[in-house]
Recover the amino acids of this structure.
């Protein structure tokens, strides 16, 4: 029977059915539902599949590698920018290789629906020289994920599955298959494999190079790379992943007259690409994200414009693909019967009514009126919305943890007051090391941890920081006299301003924990947090 | 048979419930479905949309092309108009009349209603009041689904079965209230169209 699944859910079900023993992940749109599906799955619970959230993507991927070392199948999941955090282990585990099948799932966000960039993870896959898969629809997502584990074990390498927002967050009927059992512990045959001291690493790197032709051969013959020969030779079309659907949408019943090479496995198959070059006048490359394939197959000067796509302007250079911009590249006229009437205004996202971040921003804005040199360094989370009206409270927002370290650099440069605002989960994800730096130098700056005891923006997942922040800060070495806790409520506005003002004036690093649970949390979760905080105090 | 529907609203208004009902009914009717939805930042009070595509043939794109939506169902009047470029010629517009006021530059309501009513196939109703009168203001979205239902390629039975399935968890009373909301929405729309 068909089940109605998001692309993310199809992927998660396939991982369970492929016999994983654990998934390791940090939430991030558009990847979050993969891990949540496994957390909620009854069968995954019965099978004791590990699925608790990790502290960040690096710890997640390393834990997955540890499980793979033990011989079990495992998966690690993140959004595209999360792979930057995990890049160290990612690059090195392609050298060590894996033992139990290990699949890295990265969900890219073309058009930046919920992200600060639209980086294309396929460059990472190529960088690490590992096999890569890019499904085009929900059923293929299910099938290809199971295949990914076999492929990983076949080559002894991690395999990267690249998802994009539209596939992650779109539902369709999916037929699921048999589930295979989890594996027993079986240690690596080669004791040296995971010891990447230079003398071993060189050997492993040579091995990685040596098996590249096998990976290429596998991809040439993969079921997931299909060449359909057409009758009209004016175009040959290469589609990557989901782009195939948008192409076919432009033809009645998918009857495309051109030769189409549908890519869902990398390395890019050379024979089929060569066929298109030999038989077609132009090659149109359709890929969501960066012009990855286009760049690879264009010759450097591209004077004859044989290859067209995003680089030549035939497809928009940025943003996600859709049936309309692909239709245009094919020469079709898009007929939108109506424009958006002028009376329609924008409706950007905003902080929830009653959200504690609101009360914190109100206090900070009052202090900003007292010192126009005040700069506020923000971070990734709901409170990033403080960059927008009506608050306009934060000056920077770059990456997970950058609030604290940028405030430090700015303070070193002479900016005062320098205030960092970071969420509780972002703090444990990537803020603690930066705080240690500030403590070591006793930098004049104020760190405000806006603690709502949840990973709120992605759906209020459990935060590793809950009930632990005071002790973490003490452990890092923050002076107890300058480690304060406040409750961000309107009635406390005056005393909160006073407290923050005092810490801003302190000639050293101070930490203020602004503590009130996310309004999206259930009563049960709020009670649990209250309990955690009581334990922490006692 | 192919039907493209855009569901519109503001994050948190429950358009995904309408989507889930359509999906469930279509799946039970052995039809193909693709339904995209918005997760992440926009869910925090921003404009959200869902594209629902139902067909007896293979559906390729998860997104509806411009000018190809058969109908737009919106739980908020201004959000309805945001997706007009997707509507096919003489496509159906169904919307609740109550504005969601979380922005300062919201258009004048009279102007907004006049714009909506300038389209030949538009159903502008106070679905929230209808739902409240039935004793369940949360069923606003179901009233709107009912209002659109005469133009759906799904039988009323399959939609009602889907409503029953999806709300069963919340108890019999809620199921009954939602079924009532669906019927009332349908009745009102039929009367509007026949006028």
């Amino acid at each position: 029977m068909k089940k109605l699944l998001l692309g993310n859910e199809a992927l998660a079900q396939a991982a369970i059915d492929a016999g994983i023993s654990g998934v390791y992940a940090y939430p991030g749109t558009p990847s979050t539902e993969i891990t949540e599906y496994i957390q909620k799955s009854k069968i995954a619970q019965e099978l004791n599949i590990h699925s608790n959230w990790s502290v960040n993507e690096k710890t997640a991927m390393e834990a997955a590698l540890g499980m793979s070392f033990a011989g079990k199948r495992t998966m690690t999941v993140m959004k595209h920018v999360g792979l930057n955090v995990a890049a160290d282990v990612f690059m090195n585990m392609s050298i060590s290789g894996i033992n139990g099948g290990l699949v890295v799932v990265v969900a890219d966000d073309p058009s930046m629906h919920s992200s600060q960039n639209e980086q294309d993870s396929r460059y990472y896959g190529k960088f690490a020289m590992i096999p890569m898969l890019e499904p085009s629809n929900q059923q293929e997502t299910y099938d290809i994920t199971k295949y990914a584990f076999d492929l990983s074990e076949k080559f002894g390498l991690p395999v990267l599955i690249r998802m994009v927002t539209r596939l992650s967050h779109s539902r369709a009927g999916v037929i699921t298959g048999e589930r295979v059992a989890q594996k027993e512990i079986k240690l690596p045959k080669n004791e040296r494999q995971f010891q990447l001291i230079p003398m071993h690493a060189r050997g492993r790197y040579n091995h990685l190079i040596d098996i590249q032709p096998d990976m290429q051969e596998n991809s040439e013959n993969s079921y997931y790379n299909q060449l359909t020969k057409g009758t009209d030779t004016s175009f040959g079309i290469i589609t990557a992943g989901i782009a195939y659907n948008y192409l076919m949408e432009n033809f009645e019943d998918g009857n495309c007259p051109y030769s189409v090479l549908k890519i869902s496995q990398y390395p890019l198959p050379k024979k089929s690409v060569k066929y298109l070059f030999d038989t077609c006048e132009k090659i149109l490359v359709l890929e969501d994200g960066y012009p990855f394939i286009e760049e690879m197959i264009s010759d450097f000067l591209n004077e004859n414009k044989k290859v067209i796509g995003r680089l030549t302007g035939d497809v928009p250079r940025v943003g996600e693909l859709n049936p309309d911009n692909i239709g245009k590249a094919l020469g079709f006229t898009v007929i939108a019967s109506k424009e958006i009437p002028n009376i329609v205004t924008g409706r950007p996202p905003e902080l929830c009514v009653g959200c504690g971040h609101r009360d914190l921003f109100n206090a900070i804005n009052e202090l900003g009126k007292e010192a126009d040199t005040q700069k506020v360094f923000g971070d990734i989370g709901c409170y990033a919305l403080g960059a927008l009206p009506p608050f306009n409270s934060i000056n920077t927002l770059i990456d997970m943890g950058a609030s604290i370290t940028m405030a430090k650099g700015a303070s070193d440069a002479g900016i005062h007051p320098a205030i960092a605002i970071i969420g509780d989960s972002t703090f444990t994800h990537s803020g603690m090391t930066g705080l240690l730096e500030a403590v070591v130098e006793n930098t004049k700056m104020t760190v405000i941890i806006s603690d709502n005891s949840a990973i709120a923006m992605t759906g209020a997942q459990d935060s590793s920081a809950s009930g632990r922040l005071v002790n973490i800060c003490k452990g890092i070495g923050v002076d107890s006299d300058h480690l304060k806790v406040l409750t961000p409520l309107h009635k406390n506005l005056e005393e909160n301003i006073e407290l923050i003002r005092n810490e801003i004036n302190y000639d050293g690093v101070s930490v203020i924990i602004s503590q009130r649970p996310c309004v999206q949390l259930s009563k049960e979760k709020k009670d649990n947090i209250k309990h955690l905080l009581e334990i922490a105090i006692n | 048979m192919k039907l493209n529907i855009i569901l519109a609203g503001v994050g948190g208004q429950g358009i995904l419930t309408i989507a889930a009902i359509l999906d469930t009914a279509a799946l039970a009717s052995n039809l193909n479905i693709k339904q995209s939805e918005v997760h992440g930042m926009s869910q925090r009070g921003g404009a959200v949309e869902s594209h629902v595509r139902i067909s007896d043939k293979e559906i390729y794109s998860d997104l509806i092309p411009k000018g190809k939506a058969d109908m737009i169902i919106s739980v908020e009047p201004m959000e309805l108009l945001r997706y007009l470029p997707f509507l096919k010629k003489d496509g159906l517009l169904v919307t609740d009349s109550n504005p969601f006021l979380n922005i300062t530059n919201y258009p004048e309501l009279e102007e907004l209603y006049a714009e909506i009513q300038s389209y030949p196939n538009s159903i502008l109703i106070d679905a929230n009041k209808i739902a409240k009168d039935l004793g369940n203001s949360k069923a606003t979205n179901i009233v709107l689904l009912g209002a659109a239902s005469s133009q759906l390629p799904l039988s009323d039975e399959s939609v009602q079965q889907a409503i029953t399935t999806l709300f069963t968890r919340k108890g019999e009373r809620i199921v009954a209230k939602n079924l009532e909301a669906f019927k009332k929405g349908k009745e009102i729309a039929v009367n509007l169209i026949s006028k």
Summary: The first helix of chain B runs from residue 15 to 28.
